[in-house]
Amino acid sequence: MRPLLALVALLALSPVPAAAAATTPTCGEPYRIDRTLPDGARWTMCWEMRNIEGLTLTQVAYTPKNGRAVGVLRSASLAQIQVPYDSGEPRYEDIGALGAAAIPLRAQDCPGGERPDQYVCVTTRPRGHAYFKDEPYASAQGDDLVVFSAFQVGWYTYLAEWAFGDTGTITPRVGATGSLADFTTTPAYGWPIGVGRHHFEESHSHNIFWRLDFDIDGRSGDRVEQYDFSGSGTTRRTMRRTALTRETAAVYRPMRWWRVVDYGVRNADGHAVSWEIDNSGSAQYRGPASERFTHADLYVTNYRACERLASENPTPRCADSVDKYVNGEVVRDPVVWVNVDFHHVVRDEDHDPMPTHWQGFHITPRDVTSTNPYR
Ligand SMILES: [Cu+2]
User: pTM for the complete prediction?
Assistant: First the structure.
């Protein structure tokens, strides 16, 4: 091998490059979050309260215990909350000015944490067993860094939460609480609450979209892949990888997942660093033809600054919804849009104040470290 090629090969196989400069957040106080969890893993990022998207996290980087920092997301935010009622009307699109709807948090709303301003909570929360085995005995507890804000939208309070695990997991979720909209309907479209069968509350969906601009150690080299495992009803399962090289509207199926991978960034085993996306927790709401943005569970688009929301996109000279962002472009800098839907069939328990119902998805590191990240 010629020296230059040898050097290139060596670089390609080296562990996550020492991109310390690229993974140090450029924001100052109070917008900077830098938290080392009890086991030694570290997350750094910046937060901002955008007028449209509300809580937005940028420059998100993960440093495994005893490892090097790796950039994960350039930005992450909510991209729409659509609330269509089962009778067909109304059909709310709740994101438009989420930043103005932020609710001030009291100390008790941010247990054990800090409020860098009155609308944001940064705290650490136990996650249960990180691992546990008997022979030889080994056991540890895991923790998450949690960043969240609350928003008042009509009757509902939405809790927008991001949990960053010491194992590198990212769990975005939204809780809906507050008060029911109190739409009385016919038995066909609702559920009786109150005494007897006189008052039917209308069923509805909360269709939530997240926008994730992945940048695995910088903008270049990120690819999105879809994995499927065929063989239902047979003894064998075979893996099929589909590279999503062009913009895509993808539908969830059992045993299907996606990952964002950068083949130019490798762990100590020489495996490409990637983050896997599991969107198996959705009710998969599909609206009418006029709401095509609800017709897929995960969209991959090439980065465009003006593409901010999944529907009712507010930016001039830009398409209106995520289904239209998908127009055959080659994906060089992927943005992933995740759609998770919850069908809320109201219960007696939902009387005011309504208990929180949660929906979200999981992002899991795949080959970011070459071994158990706790080691
Ligand atoms: Cu609801």
Answer: 0.93
CATH number of 3-128+142-366: 2.70.98.20
- Which among 341, 343, 188, 336 has a CA at the least distance from the CA of 274? 336
Distance from Cα 359 to the centre of ligand 1, integer Å: 11
**DSSP-derived secondary structure letter, 18:** -
Say if strands 156-165 and 334-344 run parallel, antiparallel, or are unpaired. unpaired
Ligand 1 centroid distance, CA of 353 (Å): 12
Give the list of residues 6+ apart from residue 59 with CB closer than 8 angstroms, or none. Answer: 23, 25, 26, 27, 44, 45, 46, 71, 73, 74
Check if the beta carbon of residue 122 is closer than 8 Å to that of residue 145: yes
Residues with CB under 5 A from ligand 1 (ion): 344
Distance from residue 58's CA to the centre of ligand 1 (Å): 29
Q: How far is the CA of 125 from the centre of ligand 1 (A)?
A: 26
Mean pLDDT by 10 residues, the chain (375 residues): 43 45 84 97 98 98 96 98 97 92 98 97 97 95 98 96 98 97 92 94 98 96 97 93 98 97 97 98 98 98 98 96 97 98 97 97 98 89
